[in-house]
Write a structure and sequence with these properties.
This protein has three helices and seven strands, in the order αβββββββαα. The protein has 166 residues and is α+β, with helices and mostly antiparallel strands.
Length: 166
């Protein structure tokens, strides 16, 4: 396993839509293992394949590991199946936009379906931070970054803050 370099915004690959994974190969298994290692080393709670330059529909997340409740997920071809009506705003950070967080308004509860490395199909509901994390990583697979959720003035201010940190 290896810690991979994380692409930083405004790398154009972060704005691309990823392609579905048709077959889980040894390369996909290695990518998933490397992504988990990279996420923990960063240290983050989620990481999508395009953030490490792999333009496939795969992300990893582990929302509890920093509190000693590790439960890593490897999500292949994830999709939202249901979205709750209630919405909540949370400050979100991003490993590809280090040092900047933004208040993002998202559904408070989602149900997601995905496949595992073994080909098993999972359906799980997420709420709270886990729902926000899953949606954030799904956004990456569709070429959407945190900045894309903001109004023009807030985006401009946070982009300037980010650029000043670089």
């Amino acid at each position: 396993m290896s810690v991979l370099p994380i692409l930083k915004w405004p790398d154009p690959r972060l704005t691309e839509t990823c392609v579905p994974i048709d077959e889980v190969t040894d390369d996909i298994r290695a990518l998933a293992a490397d992504m988990l290692e990279t996420m923990y080393a960063a240290p983050g709670r989620g990481l999508a394949a395009p953030q490490v330059g792999a333009m496939v529909r795969l992300f990893v997340m582990d929302v509890g590991w920093k509190e000693g409740k590790s439960d890593p997920l490897i999500c292949i071809n994830p999709m939202l199946q249901e979205v709750g009506e209630d919405r909540v705003s949370n400050d979100e950070g991003c490993l590809s936009i280090p040092g900047v967080s933004a208040s993002v308004n998202r559904p408070a509860q989602v149900q997601m379906v995905w496949s595992s490395l073994e080909g098993a199909r999972y359906v799980q509901s997420f709420d709270g931070f886990a729902a926000a994390c899953a949606q954030h990583e799904l956004d990456h697979l569709d070429g959407i970054v945190t900045f894309d959720h903001l109004d023009a003035a807030t985006r401009a201010a946070l982009e300037a803050e980010y650029e000043a940190r670089q």
